[in-house]
Amino acid sequence: MAKISVIVAAAGAGKRFGGKQNKIFARIKGQPVFIRTLEAFTSRDDVVQVQLVVSAEDMPTMKERYGGNLGFMGVAVTQGGDTRTQSVANALAKVSADADFVCVHDAVRPCVSPLWLDAVFKEAAKTGAAILAYPVHGTLKKVSAAGVIDETVSRADLWEAQTPQVFARDLLLRAYASGKSATDDAGLVEAIGHPVSVVLGDPRNIKITTPGDLALAEAVIDSLPKPKPKVTGPFDEAQW
């Protein structure tokens, strides 16, 4: 079984969400968003390390209010930088030497199924680099600064990248050392010439950006596909 170090990125400002606190502290079914997200990884046998990357501004709140929770979960807290790239780089510097792969996931994507994690981890083990993504289904319009449609853009072959994004440890370290820039980790790996495989994701794997997304997350979180229960004793039809 490949060993995976998980970096959960939570250092963004979340300006589009609004409010007085970072959206990672907003609650879904009574739990902070970031705790819901972390729980997807902390109980997995293949995960050997979990880091939560937070901004300097949120570090006191994280340690004082949630330090006990994170300690119990075995999650380390790492301070982020001015950009997402710098934040992930700070965590990469602390990745366990035991890890074969590094998984980067948005803290504000709490609706991720263990089955989707299984699929993207398996593909990364085969190819060295894999992400969850979903085909674009809507009609795309390129709009001018004046709010007028310039053109309709073909959606053929267009996919929206999601997280997790999973890479061989040495590959991701090399991509970050290249000095190139990109809006996600897959972009950095692409920039150094390594192909990145796409694993079919799901529209329920939403990224919470606005307050309205919280209601959507609450509506879908209980519908996420789950693994079949394991039979641990004599066959019992009730288990299935």
Properties at a glance:
single chain; 240 residues; alpha/beta; Spore Coat Polysaccharide Biosynthesis Protein SpsA, Chain A; 7-stranded mixed sheet; 7 helices
What would your notes on this structure say?
- This protein has 240 residues and is of the alpha/beta class.
- It has a single domain (4-133, 162-225), classed as Alpha-Beta Complex (Spore Coat Polysaccharide Biosynthesis Protein SpsA, Chain A), CATH 3.90.550.10.
- Helix content is 31%, strand content 25%.
- The chain is built from seven helices and eleven strands.
- The chain has helices at residues 33-42, 59-73, 84-92, 114-127, 169-177, 185-191, 211-220, and strands at 4-10, 27-28, 31-32, 47-54, 75-79, 101-106, 129-135, 140-143, 149-153, 159-168, 197-200.
- A seven-stranded mixed beta sheet has the order 5-4-1-6-10-7-11, sandwiched between helices. A two-stranded antiparallel ribbon has the order 2-3. A two-stranded antiparallel sheet has the order 8-9.
- β2 and β3 (31-32) form a beta hairpin.
- The longest helix has 15 residues, at 59-73.
- The chain is globular, with a radius of gyration of 19 Å.
- The two termini are 27 Å apart.
- The mean pLDDT is 92.
* Count of beta strands: 11
Radius of gyration: 19 Å
Q: Order of helices and strands, N to C?
A: EEEHEHEHEHEEEEHHEH
Q: Enter the CATH topology name.
A: Spore Coat Polysaccharide Biosynthesis Protein SpsA, Chain A
Helix content class? 25-40%
Uncertain residue ranges: none
Give me the side-by-side strand order of the main sheet. 5-4-1-6-10-7-11
Structural class: alpha/beta
Overall morphology: globular
DSSP helix count? 7
Would you tell me the overall average pLDDT? 92
Query: What count of structural domains?
Result: 1
